[in-house]
């Protein structure tokens, strides 16, 4: 019966690098050794390029007149790739509101997260994956950079924050007058349309008489 003499229980490969299985076995006659996962068979010492979908459990077999098996777990590691930065609520955000930015990166080992710049009133959540900015003002406008890093590399992605200044509304007689941040005025139907759009976007309720 064959016997494995050198076959690690766990293997760690780096994506993109050349790798192979190194399981050795003894027996008479000398057994052949293969490792298999999802009906894909690799011969021992066969060279191939590691890909992340090759992670998982393999069954290695040593065969002559008989067969013995051994499970081998493979982990393929790779540098971070930032998939997205999710912003809640969506841009532009009203001045004075709270806003969160969540960075989503794919990597093995799991990446660490950091942000630049670090501004006042910022709270870090979910192991720094998420930042929350409270009572956002125009001082918070600009680009925020998510930095994801593990031992194989570092990646960055930026997200722009745009702050919408609060609209000032006044009533005049007989027409309704709305003054925005640029001090331009509209009356009657145009003014009402602006107010309605503001209400729908900010989820505020007003009553008009």
From TrEMBL:
Gene Ontology BP annotations: cell adhesion
Gene3D superfamilies: Immunoglobulins
A GO-annotated cellular component: plasma membrane
InterPro entries to which the protein is assigned, alphabetical: ICAM_VCAM, Ig-like_dom, Ig-like_dom_sf, Ig-like_fold, Ig_sub, Ig_sub2
Record domain Ig-like: where: 2-75, 80-162
One GO molecular-function entry: integrin binding
SUPFAM superfamilies associated with the record: Immunoglobulin
UniProt-listed Pfam families: Ig_3
Domain of life: Eukaryota
Stated name of the protein: Ig-like domain-containing protein
Gene source species: Aquarana catesbeiana (American bullfrog)
Biological classification of the source: Eukaryota, Metazoa, Chordata, Craniata, Vertebrata
């Amino acid at each position: 019966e064959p016997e494995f003499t050198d076959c690690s229980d766990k293997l760690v490969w780096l994506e993109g690098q050349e790798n192979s299985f190194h399981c050795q076995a003894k027996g008479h006659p000398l057994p052949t050794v293969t490792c298999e996962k999802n009906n894909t068979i690799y011969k021992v010492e066969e060279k191939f390029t590691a890909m992340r979908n090759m992670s998982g459990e393999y069954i290695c077999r040593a065969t002559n007149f008989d067969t013995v098996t051994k499970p081998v777990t493979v982990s393929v590691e790779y540098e971070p790739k930032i998939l997205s930065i999710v912003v809640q609520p969506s841009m532009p955000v009203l001045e004075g509101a709270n806003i969160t930015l969540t960075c989503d990166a794919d990597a093995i080992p799991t990446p660490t997260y950091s942000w630049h710049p670090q501004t006042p009133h910022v709270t870090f959540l979910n192991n720094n994956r998420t930042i929350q900015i409270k009572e956002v003002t125009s001082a918070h406008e600009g680009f925020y950079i998510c930095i994801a890093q593990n031992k194989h590399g570092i990646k960055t992605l930026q997200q722009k924050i745009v702050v919408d200044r609060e609209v000032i509304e006044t009533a005049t007689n007989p027409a309704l007058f709305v003054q925005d941040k640029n001090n331009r005025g509209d009356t009657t139907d145009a003014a009402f349309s602006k107010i309605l759009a503001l209400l729908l976007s900010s989820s505020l309720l007003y009553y008009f008489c």
